[in-house]
Amino acid sequence: MDAPSLASPAALRKTPDAEVRPLSTDDDFAACEDMQRRVWGRNYACVPGALMKVSLHVGGIVAGAFDEGGTMLGFVFGLTGPVDGRIVHWSHMLAVDPPHRDRGIGSLLKRHQLVRARELGAERVEWTFDPLVARNAHLNINRLGVDVRAYVPDMYSGTGSDLHVFGTDRFIVSLSTASRRAPRAQPADDAVANAPFLNGAPGSSTDAAPSGACVRIRIPADITEVAACDPAAARAWRASTRAAFTRALAQGYRIVQVRTDGDDPAYVLVRSS
Q1: Mind listing the pLDDT tens digit for each residue in 23-48?
Q2: What is the CATH superfamily name and number for domain 3-181?
Q3: What is the pTM of this model?
Protein backbone atom coordinates (compact mmCIF):
# COMPACT_ATOMS: atom_id res chain seq x y z
CA MET A 1 0.00 0.00 0.00
CA ASP A 2 1.25 3.50 -0.80
CA ALA A 3 2.29 5.66 2.13
CA PRO A 4 1.12 9.27 2.46
CA SER A 5 3.68 11.83 1.37
CA LEU A 6 5.59 13.93 3.88
CA ALA A 7 4.71 16.82 1.57
CA SER A 8 0.96 16.47 2.10
CA PRO A 9 -0.75 19.15 4.22
CA ALA A 10 -1.76 16.41 6.68
CA ALA A 11 1.90 15.80 7.41
CA LEU A 12 2.45 19.42 8.45
CA ARG A 13 1.89 19.70 12.14
CA LYS A 14 3.51 21.20 15.19
CA THR A 15 5.19 19.48 18.07
CA PRO A 16 3.72 20.04 21.53
CA ASP A 17 6.33 22.72 22.24
CA ALA A 18 7.34 24.12 18.82
CA GLU A 19 5.64 25.62 15.80
CA VAL A 20 7.06 26.38 12.35
CA ARG A 21 6.38 29.65 10.53
CA PRO A 22 8.05 31.55 7.66
CA LEU A 23 10.71 34.07 8.65
CA SER A 24 9.68 37.65 7.91
CA THR A 25 11.14 40.22 10.32
CA ASP A 26 14.64 41.64 10.70
CA ASP A 27 14.78 40.01 14.15
CA ASP A 28 13.92 36.64 12.55
CA PHE A 29 16.79 36.85 10.06
CA ALA A 30 19.22 38.13 12.69
CA ALA A 31 18.31 35.13 14.87
CA CYS A 32 18.95 32.87 11.86
CA GLU A 33 22.45 34.29 11.36
CA ASP A 34 23.19 33.89 15.07
CA MET A 35 22.07 30.27 15.00
CA GLN A 36 24.34 29.50 12.05
CA ARG A 37 27.32 30.66 14.11
CA ARG A 38 26.21 28.68 17.16
CA VAL A 39 25.78 25.49 15.13
CA TRP A 40 28.72 25.73 12.70
CA GLY A 41 31.12 27.95 14.71
CA ARG A 42 32.03 31.62 14.94
CA ASN A 43 34.27 31.44 11.86
CA TYR A 44 31.60 29.86 9.63
CA ALA A 45 30.85 31.75 6.40
CA CYS A 46 27.15 32.08 7.16
CA VAL A 47 24.39 32.92 4.67
CA PRO A 48 23.38 36.55 5.32
CA GLY A 49 19.83 37.16 6.49
CA ALA A 50 19.45 39.81 3.77
CA LEU A 51 20.09 37.18 1.09
CA MET A 52 17.56 34.81 2.65
CA LYS A 53 15.02 37.63 2.71
CA VAL A 54 15.56 38.45 -0.97
CA SER A 55 15.29 34.77 -1.91
CA LEU A 56 11.63 34.79 -0.86
CA HIS A 57 10.87 36.74 -4.06
CA VAL A 58 12.29 34.01 -6.34
CA GLY A 59 11.09 30.74 -4.85
CA GLY A 60 13.13 30.72 -1.65
CA ILE A 61 11.81 28.96 1.45
CA VAL A 62 12.98 30.27 4.82
CA ALA A 63 11.22 29.08 7.96
CA GLY A 64 11.95 28.73 11.64
CA ALA A 65 10.72 26.59 14.50
CA PHE A 66 9.81 28.66 17.55
CA ASP A 67 8.83 27.90 21.10
CA GLU A 68 5.81 29.49 22.78
CA GLY A 69 7.95 32.42 23.92
CA GLY A 70 9.08 33.22 20.37
CA THR A 71 12.64 31.85 20.67
CA MET A 72 13.97 30.25 17.50
CA LEU A 73 14.82 26.58 18.00
CA GLY A 74 15.85 25.81 14.41
CA PHE A 75 15.53 26.96 10.82
CA VAL A 76 15.51 25.71 7.24
CA PHE A 77 16.53 27.54 4.05
CA GLY A 78 16.45 26.59 0.38
CA LEU A 79 15.97 27.78 -3.20
CA THR A 80 13.68 26.63 -6.01
CA GLY A 81 14.57 26.42 -9.69
CA PRO A 82 14.63 24.32 -12.89
CA VAL A 83 16.89 21.28 -13.24
CA ASP A 84 16.79 19.44 -16.59
CA GLY A 85 13.42 21.00 -17.35
CA ARG A 86 11.82 20.09 -14.00
CA ILE A 87 11.25 22.25 -10.94
CA VAL A 88 13.40 21.22 -7.97
CA HIS A 89 13.84 22.74 -4.54
CA TRP A 90 17.38 22.68 -3.18
CA SER A 91 17.48 22.69 0.61
CA HIS A 92 20.73 24.45 1.45
CA MET A 93 20.58 24.53 5.25
CA LEU A 94 18.72 22.96 8.14
CA ALA A 95 19.89 23.60 11.69
CA VAL A 96 18.54 22.89 15.16
CA ASP A 97 19.98 24.63 18.21
CA PRO A 98 22.07 21.97 20.04
CA PRO A 99 20.10 22.09 23.34
CA HIS A 100 16.87 21.34 21.43
CA ARG A 101 17.96 18.40 19.29
CA ASP A 102 16.35 14.95 19.35
CA ARG A 103 12.88 16.46 19.86
CA GLY A 104 11.57 16.08 16.30
CA ILE A 105 12.25 19.70 15.35
CA GLY A 106 14.39 18.77 12.34
CA SER A 107 11.61 16.55 10.98
CA LEU A 108 9.07 19.30 11.57
CA LEU A 109 11.14 21.83 9.62
CA LYS A 110 11.74 19.40 6.76
CA ARG A 111 8.03 18.58 6.49
CA HIS A 112 7.20 22.30 6.32
CA GLN A 113 9.77 22.73 3.56
CA LEU A 114 8.37 19.81 1.58
CA VAL A 115 4.84 21.18 1.77
CA ARG A 116 5.95 24.64 0.64
CA ALA A 117 8.10 23.19 -2.16
CA ARG A 118 5.13 21.25 -3.47
CA GLU A 119 3.03 24.43 -3.42
CA LEU A 120 5.74 26.12 -5.49
CA GLY A 121 5.50 23.36 -8.11
CA ALA A 122 8.67 21.45 -7.21
CA GLU A 123 8.59 17.74 -8.09
CA ARG A 124 11.30 16.90 -5.58
CA VAL A 125 13.45 18.39 -2.86
CA GLU A 126 17.18 17.72 -2.79
CA TRP A 127 19.81 18.40 -0.15
CA THR A 128 23.00 17.03 1.35
CA PHE A 129 23.99 15.49 4.65
CA ASP A 130 27.18 14.09 6.14
CA PRO A 131 27.16 10.27 5.98
CA LEU A 132 29.15 10.10 9.22
CA VAL A 133 26.58 11.92 11.38
CA ALA A 134 24.44 9.10 12.76
CA ARG A 135 21.68 11.43 13.99
CA ASN A 136 21.24 12.96 10.54
CA ALA A 137 21.46 9.58 8.84
CA HIS A 138 18.59 8.29 10.99
CA LEU A 139 16.46 11.36 10.22
CA ASN A 140 17.07 11.27 6.48
CA ILE A 141 17.11 7.56 5.70
CA ASN A 142 14.81 6.06 8.33
CA ARG A 143 12.33 8.83 9.07
CA LEU A 144 12.15 10.83 5.83
CA GLY A 145 12.91 7.96 3.44
CA VAL A 146 15.22 9.84 1.07
CA ASP A 147 16.92 8.32 -1.95
CA VAL A 148 20.71 8.73 -2.04
CA ARG A 149 21.64 10.05 -5.50
CA ALA A 150 25.39 10.51 -5.12
CA TYR A 151 28.38 10.54 -2.78
CA VAL A 152 30.48 13.69 -3.21
CA PRO A 153 33.95 13.99 -1.59
CA ASP A 154 34.72 17.34 0.10
CA MET A 155 31.65 19.13 -1.23
CA TYR A 156 31.91 22.10 1.13
CA SER A 157 35.64 22.57 1.68
CA GLY A 158 36.78 25.98 2.95
CA THR A 159 33.70 26.89 5.01
CA GLY A 160 35.65 27.80 8.13
CA SER A 161 33.41 25.65 10.31
CA ASP A 162 34.89 23.74 13.23
CA LEU A 163 32.53 20.88 12.28
CA HIS A 164 34.29 20.41 8.93
CA VAL A 165 37.84 19.69 10.11
CA PHE A 166 37.58 16.00 9.17
CA GLY A 167 36.33 16.66 5.64
CA THR A 168 33.02 17.60 4.05
CA ASP A 169 32.03 14.49 2.11
CA ARG A 170 28.29 14.50 1.54
CA PHE A 171 25.42 12.43 0.23
CA ILE A 172 23.19 14.23 -2.26
CA VAL A 173 19.69 12.97 -1.50
CA SER A 174 16.28 13.43 -3.07
CA LEU A 175 12.70 13.20 -1.84
CA SER A 176 9.62 13.36 -4.07
CA THR A 177 6.86 15.82 -3.24
CA ALA A 178 4.25 13.53 -4.88
CA SER A 179 0.98 13.11 -3.02
CA ARG A 180 1.74 9.45 -2.26
CA ARG A 181 4.93 7.41 -2.19
CA ALA A 182 5.62 3.70 -2.12
CA PRO A 183 7.25 2.34 1.04
CA ARG A 184 10.83 1.18 0.62
CA ALA A 185 11.33 -2.58 0.66
CA GLN A 186 13.46 -3.71 3.59
CA PRO A 187 15.67 -6.78 3.97
CA ALA A 188 14.77 -9.33 6.64
CA ASP A 189 16.36 -8.89 10.06
CA ASP A 190 18.41 -12.08 9.71
CA ALA A 191 19.73 -10.91 6.34
CA VAL A 192 20.91 -7.67 7.97
CA ALA A 193 22.41 -9.48 10.95
CA ASN A 194 24.43 -11.72 8.61
CA ALA A 195 25.41 -9.01 6.12
CA PRO A 196 29.16 -8.40 5.90
CA PHE A 197 30.72 -5.08 6.88
CA LEU A 198 32.64 -3.35 4.09
CA ASN A 199 34.75 -1.36 6.54
CA GLY A 200 36.06 -1.59 10.06
CA ALA A 201 36.65 0.90 12.82
CA PRO A 202 39.81 3.03 12.37
CA GLY A 203 42.90 0.92 12.80
CA SER A 204 41.27 -2.35 11.76
CA SER A 205 42.18 -4.25 8.63
CA THR A 206 38.61 -4.79 7.43
CA ASP A 207 38.23 -3.54 3.86
CA ALA A 208 35.93 -5.97 2.08
CA ALA A 209 34.72 -5.73 -1.48
CA PRO A 210 30.92 -5.53 -1.87
CA SER A 211 29.33 -8.94 -2.50
CA GLY A 212 26.00 -10.59 -1.83
CA ALA A 213 22.51 -9.17 -1.70
CA CYS A 214 22.99 -7.13 1.49
CA VAL A 215 26.02 -5.36 2.99
CA ARG A 216 26.72 -2.94 5.83
CA ILE A 217 28.97 0.10 6.27
CA ARG A 218 29.98 1.07 9.81
CA ILE A 219 29.89 4.64 11.11
CA PRO A 220 30.77 6.02 14.55
CA ALA A 221 28.00 6.61 17.07
CA ASP A 222 29.02 10.28 17.43
CA ILE A 223 31.55 11.60 14.92
CA THR A 224 31.56 15.04 16.57
CA GLU A 225 32.77 13.52 19.82
CA VAL A 226 35.36 11.46 17.94
CA ALA A 227 36.65 14.57 16.16
CA ALA A 228 36.89 16.50 19.42
CA CYS A 229 38.87 13.74 21.17
CA ASP A 230 40.91 12.31 18.27
CA PRO A 231 40.90 14.27 14.98
CA ALA A 232 43.07 11.62 13.34
CA ALA A 233 40.46 8.95 14.12
CA ALA A 234 37.73 11.14 12.61
CA ARG A 235 39.75 11.51 9.41
CA ALA A 236 40.31 7.74 9.39
CA TRP A 237 36.56 7.18 9.63
CA ARG A 238 36.11 9.53 6.67
CA ALA A 239 38.64 7.66 4.56
CA SER A 240 37.21 4.25 5.47
CA THR A 241 33.59 5.15 4.73
CA ARG A 242 34.44 7.11 1.59
CA ALA A 243 36.08 4.04 0.09
CA ALA A 244 33.23 1.74 1.15
CA PHE A 245 30.41 3.97 -0.08
CA THR A 246 31.97 4.80 -3.43
CA ARG A 247 32.66 1.10 -4.14
CA ALA A 248 29.21 -0.06 -3.10
CA LEU A 249 27.25 2.65 -4.91
CA ALA A 250 29.31 2.14 -8.07
CA GLN A 251 28.41 -1.56 -8.01
CA GLY A 252 24.66 -0.92 -7.83
CA TYR A 253 23.97 -1.11 -4.11
CA ARG A 254 21.45 1.32 -2.62
CA ILE A 255 20.99 2.44 0.95
CA VAL A 256 17.71 1.31 2.52
CA GLN A 257 18.16 1.90 6.27
CA VAL A 258 20.47 2.93 9.06
CA ARG A 259 20.86 0.86 12.22
CA THR A 260 21.88 3.19 15.06
CA ASP A 261 21.14 0.86 17.96
CA GLY A 262 23.82 -1.29 19.59
CA ASP A 263 27.59 -0.98 19.40
CA ASP A 264 27.89 -0.99 15.60
CA PRO A 265 25.88 1.84 13.97
CA ALA A 266 25.76 1.03 10.27
CA TYR A 267 24.14 1.73 6.95
CA VAL A 268 22.34 -1.20 5.35
CA LEU A 269 22.64 -1.49 1.56
CA VAL A 270 20.99 -3.93 -0.84
CA ARG A 271 21.95 -4.73 -4.40
CA SER A 272 19.55 -3.25 -6.95
CA SER A 273 17.70 -5.88 -8.94
Answers
A1: 999 999 999 999 999 988 888 888 99
A2: Gcn5-related N-acetyltransferase (GNAT) (3.40.630.30)
A3: 0.82
